[in-house]
Structure formats: C-alpha cells, structure tokens
Input
Amino acid sequence: MMQQNVIALEMIGAIVEETVQAQGWMIPPPVLGYTVRILADRVDRVPFTPEPSYAEAYMKLRTPAEALTFGDTCFFTRSVFPELLERRGVGQNYFVQLGQSSYTMALKHAELPHVKLLRDHFEFMAEVIHTSIRHTGYFRSMWS
Output
C-alpha cells in the first residue's frame, strides 16, 4: 500500500470510528475495516466511476475478483456520492442493488464473511460511511 493510502486509511478510519462510537453502533471490526479500506483505496482514484457506465461494467463481470471490485465501487458510490446519477433519474437504490448482486457473485466462489455481512447490510453500512464523512447523513440528523 502506498504511503498516501496508509495515511488516508488511518484518517478515514479515525473519522468513521469516531462516528460509530458516538452513535453507539456495534459493527464487527472486519466489516468496518473493510469499508474503510474501500474508501481509502478510492479516495485518490480518478475516475472512480466505471467506464463507460455502471450497467455495462456490471454486464461485463466475469470473475469473482471483478465482481468484488465492482461491488466495492458501488458501495463507495452509494456511501460517498449517493446523488451521483439523480439528475438522470437514477436513485441510490441502483448502487445498492448492483453492489449486493456483485457481492453475491463473488461469494459464490469464496468464503468472505465480512463481504457477506456488508452485502446483507449494504444500505446501513453505506449510510454509516455517509454519515461519517459528510456529517449530514440520515443517521446523524436522526440523533444529533
């Protein structure tokens, strides 16, 4: 991991952990760590969106590794930029469905308990991250 990503991982991890602690959420450390790594890995990736589109990238998935990476991209998008395609009439649930489906593909070929939990609680975890980094997520407004 590059030095820049290590620093991003530590900083993002601290921000997310602070939010989780403040809200009193009980999130398994492997799941929390994995979501933080997804963010740190993509924080400086340009473009972070699949080319040419999410739908085409999904249709081209061939390997479990591709499915896992695409699921992570959908999680990142839903967590950090949920409004990305709203002007085109595409809601946040689009990223949730694509991400969960991609994780299901990957899980058919590998035992990844943290990915299974993330898939099963995709929307909640995305909102945890959104709340952590934006300080305006649904959960923050509910308890602040």
The mean pLDDT is 87.
